[in-house]
Design goal:
This is Succinate dehydrogenase/fumarate reductase iron-sulfur subunit. InterPro entries: 2Fe-2S_ferredoxin-like_sf (IPR036010), 2Fe-2S_ferredoxin-type (IPR001041), 2Fe2S_fd_BS (IPR006058), 4Fe4S_Fe-S-bd (IPR017896), Beta-grasp_dom_sf (IPR012675), Helical_ferredxn (IPR009051), SDH/FRD_Iron-Sulfur (IPR050573), Succ_DH/fum_Rdtase_Fe-S (IPR004489). It comes from Micromonospora echinofusca. The protein is an alpha+beta fold and 355 residues long. The protein contains 13 helices and ten strands. Strand 9 and strand 10 form a beta hairpin. Helix 3 packs antiparallel against helix 6, helix 6 runs antiparallel to helix 7 and helix 6 packs across helix 9. The site of one iron/sulfur cluster has 13 residues, from helix 8 and helix 9.
């Protein structure tokens, strides 16, 4: 199947651009990323494209190929007709930096906002034990390579820039679901947090995210739908509500004016209420439920290094940064594990900091 093939590649930057036509050599067994590399070596040496592993594992080479969000390195040329034009465009949901490279820092911000794994207070690292069945259940979500194809595909943000602030996206719903299923995670309100803070209610389970996931993670069936069902059960099923009143201690207890205890931790609640989209609901009960168990007053450290320079381009940090390696996308000032006052879940040590 060797010979020249017709490619159309979007060229441009944040100020605009257009599709450019190329006739390029394609050899047997090649993938779209090979052809992009050949273009860089021949007709378009300044064509910008992100890639790293060429093995479908780093998640860097995300692009839209004939309108479908795909990994360039996993899309075989043999899947196209011999005379078919292959059109390659950048991810549409994220701002353009140049050519096929987009600014995906939206996803890093959402990652940073997602509460981390909360280990049990009475266990030291090394003492954690869990059943194999629990490991396997969340293992599916750990396969995520952070290609952000699902984030790019989801119509909630693809066509509505204004939703980005309120919506974390399918990649972070699977993170919430994974931790919700984790038997050693001491934060018990993952679903409520997903509903109140991550915008789970915006998702109308179209399954487009599942369709494009190169790791074949069943994002909608195994993460989003179970979380939605459990949020609804907990809030609206009268039997579940009655059962929780009769048999179970409530997840949070009011311990004083403006304070709420969550599994022993105490957090001040904001005065005058807190904005929460609670899945787009304005139901005050749902809002109040959704806010339980979240440290609303956490300090959020700001990155000290901007992700892009004033021209919207990524800095050549390997050359210009004042120490080896690039700054962390989580911010140069962030240390891990994060200080407890920066966490937005009920960490047991948050109590100790107050006294
Ligand atoms: S299922 Fe939900 S998260 Fe996935 S693409 Fe559809 S609306 Fe977005
Ligand atoms: S869930 Fe799938 S599509 Fe989404 S970022 Fe992870 S690997 Fe990519
Ligand atoms: S280059 Fe790593 S996933 Fe394509």
């Amino acid at each position: 199947m060797g010979g020249k093939r017709h490619f159309r590649v979007w060229r441009g930057d944040e100020s605009g651009g257009e599709l450019q036509d190329y006739q390029v050599e394609v050899n047997e067994g090649e993938v779209v990323l090979d052809v992009i590399h050949r273009l860089q070596a021949t007709d378009a040496p300044d064509l910008a494209c992100r890639w790293n592993c060429k093995a479908g594992k780093c998640g860097s080479c995300s692009m839209e190929i004939n309108g479908m969000p795909k990994l360039g390195c996993m899309t075989r040329m043999s899947t196209f007709e011999e005379n078919e034009t292959v059109t390659v465009t950048p991810l549409r949901t994220f701002p353009i930096i140049r050519d096929l490279v987009t600014d995906v820092s939206f996803n890093y911000e959402k990652a940073r906002e997602t509460p981390a794994f909360a280990p049990p207070a009475d266990l030291a690292p090394g003492e954690y034990r869990m059943q194999q069945v629990d490991v396997e259940r969340s293992q599916e979500f750990r396969k995520c390579i952070e290609c952000f194809l699902c984030q790019n595909t989801c119509h909630v943000v693809r066509d509505h820039e204004e939703n980005k602030q309120a919506f974390a996206g399918p990649r972070y719903f699977i993170r919430a679901a994974e931790l919700d299923m984790h038997p050693l995670d001491a934060k018990t309100d993952r679903k409520e947090y997903a509903q109140a803070e991550q915008g789970l209610g915006f998702c109308n389970i179209t399954k487009c995210c599942t369709e494009v996931c190169p790791e074949h993670i069943k994002i909608t069936d195994n993460a989003i739908i179970p979380m939605k069902e459990r949020v609804v059960d907990r809030r609206y099923d009268p039997l579940v509500w009655l059962g929780s009143k009769i048999f179970r201690r409530p997840m949070t207890e009011t311990v004083g004016h403006g304070e709420t205890s969550v599994l022993g931790a105490v957090h001040a609640q904001p005065k005058g209420g807190v904005h929460s989209h609670a899945g787009g609901s304005h139901d005050p009960h749902a809002e109040a439920e959704a806010q339980r168990g979240v440290n609303w007053h956490r300090q959020v450290p700001k990155p000290t290094v901007p992700p892009v320079d004033e021209h919207g381009r990524l800095p050549l940090t390997e050359l210009t940064f004042d120490r080896p390696a690039a700054p962390s996308p989580f911010g140069d000032d962030v240390t891990f594990p994060m200080p407890v006052e920066h966490l937005n879940y009920a960490h047991p040590e948050q109590d100790e900091k107050k006294h």
